[in-house]
Design a protein that fits this description.
Blueprint: H1 3-11, H2 21-43, E1 56-60, H3 69-82, E2 87-91, E3 102-103, H4 108-111, H5 113-120, E4 125-127, H6 131-140, E5 145-149, E6 161-166, E7 195-198, H7 206-216, E8 223-235, E9 240-241, E10 247-252, H8 257-266, E11 270-276, H9 285-291, E12 297-298, H10 301-307, E13 315-323, H11 326-334
Parallel strand pairs: 1-5, 1-6, 2-4, 2-5, 6-7, 7-8, 10-11, 10-12
Antiparallel strand pairs: 3-4, 8-9, 8-13
Helix pairs in contact: 5-10
Length: 369
Amino acid sequence: MNLCEVRKKVSKKQGFWIILYPLFLLLSKLYCGVATFRYELYRGGFLRQYFFPIPVISVGNIVAGGTGKTPLVEYIYTVLRDLGFSPAIVMRGYGGTEKGPVVAEENPDRYGDEAVLYVKKDFFTIISRNRVAGIDFAMEKGANVVILDDGFQQFKVKPTINIVVIDPFNPFGGDFCLPLGTLREPVNFLERADCFVISRANIASVEKINSLEIYLKNFGKPVFRGEQNFKYWINERFEKISQPDEDINLFCGIGAPVQFVKMIEELGYRIEKSFFFPDHYGYIREDIERLSKYRNLVTTEKDLVKVSRYQLPVKVPVLGVEVFGLKEFILNRIKNVEKHEEKDEQKVFIPDGISVSHSVERGSFRESQ
């Protein structure tokens, strides 16, 4: 049983797990307190923040686990590259052993699964435990704009744009910090954000999205809706292939497996059996032998990065995201950056928050149980 399963049982006070609730609550309050103290040290000037001569676009979240951040990073990188910028992604390389700063390559054990996924798509990616050193390194390598992956809690870096991704299925981590909930810091810290992107907005109910958007507008920042879309299928060699049969077997080791299952079902597939592993899971030979007994296996791009070495026959849906208005918002913030190629569409700038309606009266948002 992993920590996620224990957390759910404790938070719902199931059976004898109720005896751990006071301990988890205490640890949760302690976690939030430490996060608040750390933030106040930076805000008060006791710890140094670093500014950079090039734009730094932070893409992060306020909860632990999958929020749809990776597809958004890919979207922003592609937009910037197509407009003539020289972007670089700077990230920790979670799950890898490399401390950096170094240019990532196709080795998930060293650089982590997300970094290798970016590399597979020809994205210039820097691994660095020290994000300041990573951004400096990216500039030395010729980048004129940096996308800081998972940067919302990186107080040492002062970003040009602070984008926070909100998962409509778990927006505020059960209203508790880790370990009782999944918040990485108190919800009111969202005031640091420059804008919000609600991920998978086309999958969640209209009522849920509208309610969440109303709450986020209380912070006085633009709120954009990200729509997840299916692009095509690939195999274990990352080659485009035809779609699988209607009956499939599914496995994944990601932060939000339920949303992946929901997406697969909405594509019209019937799932015979599902295997869920911890987020960023490192597959071993025994796992592959177990999975190979099942036909028509489907997994995620992140998982493919780690199982491709075993040549396990799998089919993977490649997903994309569209965020109306976000490109214009970003361009307005970085429009003075020199690009390699000028294109007509770069000369037209739309005011920040074009896709967001006027502010609303302050309300409250509570997650459904």
